[in-house]
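Here's what a typical entry looks like (acireductone dioxygenase (Fe(2+)-requiring)):
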Amino acid sequence: LDADNYETDPCLKEIRRAENYSWMDIVTIHKDKLPNYEEKIKTFYEEHLHLDDEIRYILDGSGYFDVRDKDDKWIRISMEKGDMITLPAGIYHRFTLDENNYVKAMRLFVGEPVWTAYNRPADDFPARKQYMKFLADEAQ
């Protein structure tokens, strides 16, 4: 995606239309820009899941999303300017900055934003059970 022109990027506009991403905001994660920076960084790095998909579009900077594979092992996903990721509801994950200690990201949601993170263990939520069923079905 064209992060330098995200306001007018036709590809982003089409993704938002097709996926019904009706709400967005922009967050800058940097010690000089994010209130309670140290606390937030620790929170982002706690292993957790959400009951809705987590969609992030990197507008500047870089960082890592760590996700669990089907064998419960970590996979590190490097994210940089122009990258978009959708983490499905129910997947355990965490986020951390890289050595640049800076990222500016668009947060997208279907409908009103839901910010609640459920730290592991959170296996009894329907979203987690649905995600695990998806993994089992894919393995067959």
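Residues 68 and 74 are 5 Å apart (CA to CA).

More examples are in the samples folder.
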